[in-house]
Amino acid sequence: MQQIHKTKxxxxxxxxxxxxxxxxxxxxxxLHKFSLWNPKLCKRWRNLLKIGKPITNNMYVCSEHFLPRxxxxxxxxxxxxxxxxxPRQRIKKxxxxxxxLPKSSHENTKCxxxx
Length: 115
Fold this sequence. Notes:
GO terms for molecular function: DNA binding; zinc ion binding. Pfam families: THAP. It comes from Phaedon cochleariae (Mustard beetle). The chain is mainly β. It contains one helix and six strands. It has one domain (about 15-100). About 10% of the residues lie in helices and about 15% in strands. It is globular.
């Protein structure tokens, strides 16, 4: 009998860039870009989240690292007069990640091997 291997979905999925977090964008978890337009805030996020590498446009922080008060809701307009129907969460410009912070950076995390 021939084995059939399922191929992985090659479509890329955005995920949280915070060490020890494996969240993806879902109906209950939103992803937010780093504040590259505000270098001081970006540096503060990077330090709090223990990210040891330079921040890029492709890096995100999930909503699991923020308090409910750090968000504001809005309706995202698709075309004139229509919306998605479900309000999306938008992070406030002054929001600071303060929940589920990593204990160490990716660089300090070691893989344990069984012997």
